[in-house]
Amino acid sequence: MSITEVQFQATAVQDAPAQAIEGRSQWQLTWRRLRNDNVAVISVVVIGLVILFALAAPLIAHATGHGVDVAFPNTGEDASGQPVGPGTHGFLLGTDEIGRDLLVRIAYGARISLFVGILTTAIATVAGVSIGLIAGYFGGLVDTFLARVIDAALAFPFIVLALALAAVFHPSLAIVIGVITFFSWAGISRIVRGQTLSLKEKEYIEAARSIGAGPWRIMFIDILPNLLGPVLVLATLYIPTAVTFEATLSFLGIGIPEPAPSWGNILGEAQSFYQTSWWYVVFPAAALLITTLAFNLLGDGIRDAMDPRTERIFAGSKASRRKRGKRRGQAGQDADLGMGLVVPAGGEG
Amino acid sequence: MARFLFRRILTGILEPVTAQYWHFLTNLVQGNLGKSFFLQEPVTTVIKQDLPPTISVVIGGMALWLIAGLSVGILSATRARSFFDRFATVGVLAGISAPTFVVGELLIIFVFVQLNDHGISFIQTGYTAITADPVGWLGAMILPWITLAIVQAAVYTRLSRGSLLDTMGEDYIRTARSKGISERRVLFRHAVRSALTPVVSQLGIDIGALLGGVLVVEVVFGLQGLGQETITSISQGDQPVVIGFVILASLFVVVANIIVDMSYAALDPRVRIT
Predict the structure, then answer these.
(1) Disulfide: which of A185, A198, A314, B141 matches A127 by Cβ 3.0-4.6 Å?
(2) What is the pLDDT of residue A115?
(3) Per the CB < 8 Å rule, is B105 touching A270?
(4) What does the pLDDT read at residue A243?
(5) Which residue in B90, B98, B219 is closest to A289 by CB distance?
(6) What pLDDT score does B198 carry?
């Protein structure tokens, strides 16, 4: 490149029409990318609809005139006492084996699933973040102790503990929430601890300490905001995991006790009726699948939106023609957010 | 006899806890796990009865999910960001989202019930011993295998894709290419081998955990395996069986992890100690 070329380029830059250059924060960038991600937008809409469906459960019960625990032996069962199919006698999704409206029960089941999913994730996130921060920041004996507790919690067989608890106490919503929370916080803790270990060596933490900031201020005001990204992604991915756990426990009869409807215990009951009543299995299963898939897709979308290295998987084919070798070179130039996240697995076989 | 048993039980309870534990340990070393409270059988007999269904499900399912997971993972990684890759990504998420029992029940409705309604009775639920009827065994196992494969393959696809993409960027792959080796040989002889390391460690965890009882699959397909027996004995408070099963499950986890550790060296020359 000759000197004149450089000069030409320099003037060209100066001559370019004055464009307002806007600084965008990381969150603004993430938000913009997320909005352009069709799959994430659709997921949000679906999640919104499921939440609306759950909130509207009493309205649905009112509109259909079918209470959640009210059996309709005359209209809701056929002559031989079997469940009736979708659309019969005003039962839009059919009935279960004692003639209760499946639509109303699935709507009320959505309340329990979302409540358990969101509440356990919230508790687990707060607990996991606090414990991870404390372990990572203080280090030493505190860390050794807490890290072992985290390992122990991760090593516990999930269903066996739930079974044992359900055998000693009676199955209840509280036990379900307790068990799922107990198995969720440790994964978050481990990641937060790892991130804290590296973040606390950064210069700005040293600067904070030198102006006299205490450990709690540093942990929660200086370090925590830098962890919010990965934690948000993890939390979004833990919600479907918790929903699945709740459904699995209820399916096995050690979760939400009857007659309260949960997608899991409806499916557990439906097990004896798959020969005759497909709707009894298919509709609650679809509700469960749609909900967990939407949360998982949203979580993946948020992660992609936060990670500057991600090429837009669903946004056009330009990226797909790029040669394989280029990927690494590009990755090196962008900032690494440290988003090597562990996705929680979907539960035990 | 009754009086003798009564005295045995009484002395057993009256002994100090440490002595009871010592008895338990000496019996354990001799392969005696005690007697079930409810079944009036030694725990080892219960284990022998319940092991075949569980092992059949896990081993067959593993073969299926490894074939599916690895081939999709390798194809996705070598064609990164292609249409196939995108399609696989969504498929993987669907697999991860799907609870095991939902997959199982849907398979029962759409495969088992449909086929049997149309007079094809090859696929059945429940367990048929392989020694008694190999064909019946296969028919009974196919749906559990597919269920397990759908749920598990997703994790393996994601794992092998990510790991292989990282490995393909390593310097030694470039060196191998520059030697003029064919791309296929680079992929299978050099890249896939070391990319399998995280896959194998995940496999160790899964196999160990699943052999302890593929609980949900067993419940859905009515297989009387370790998982179902665990549920029954916990709810009945049958402690010798529970303890025996927990010990067995731990044994599976430990053995699976030892095998995994040994296979690292076979897969990746960089891990070899000598």
Answers:
(1) A185
(2) 93
(3) yes
(4) 92
(5) B98
(6) 83
Q: Span A8-26, mean pLDDT?
A: 60
pLDDT band at B232 (very low <50, low <70, confident <90, very high): confident
The chain A residue lying nearest B230, using CA atoms, is A160
**Do B99 and A160 lie within an 8 Å CB cutoff?**
no
Domain residue limits at A257: 25-307
- A161/chain B closest Cα distance in angstroms: 10
- Residue A320 located in a structural domain: no
pLDDT over threshold 70, residue A337 = no
B76, B79, B81, B233: best to mutate for the A interface, most A CBs within 10 A? B81
Tell me whether residue A333 is in a domain.
no
Tell me how far apart the alpha carbons of residues A257 and A253 are, in angstroms, rounded to a whole number.
7
How many other C-beta atoms lie within 10 A of the C-beta of residue B143? 21
Q: At B149, which helix (H) or strand (E)?
A: helix B134-168
- Chain A residues whose CB is inside 8 A of the B97 CB are 240, 244, 289, 292-293, 295-296, 346
| Integer angstrom CA distances of residue A4 from A8, A10, A11 | 6, 10, 10
Query: Count of domains in chain A?
Result: 1
Q: What is the pLDDT, as a whole number, of residue A4?
A: 52
Report yes or no on A7 lying in a domain: no
Residue A91 sits in a domain whose CATH number is 1.10.3720.10
Q: What pTM value is reported for the model?
A: 0.78
A289 and chain B in contact, CB less than 8 A: yes
For residue A116, list chain B residues with Cβ-Cβ distance below 8 A. Answer: none
Check residue B2 and give its pLDDT.
63
Nearest by CB to B94, which of A244, A293, A345?
Answer: A293
Whether B222 shows a pLDDT value over 60: the answer reads yes
- Other beta carbons within 10 angstroms of residue A224's beta carbon come to 17
Mean pLDDT of B58-86: 86
Inter-residue contact A292 to A244 (CB < 8 Å): yes
Q: Give domain status of residue A346, yes or no.
A: no
Torsion over CA: A247, A250, A252, A254 (sign):
positive
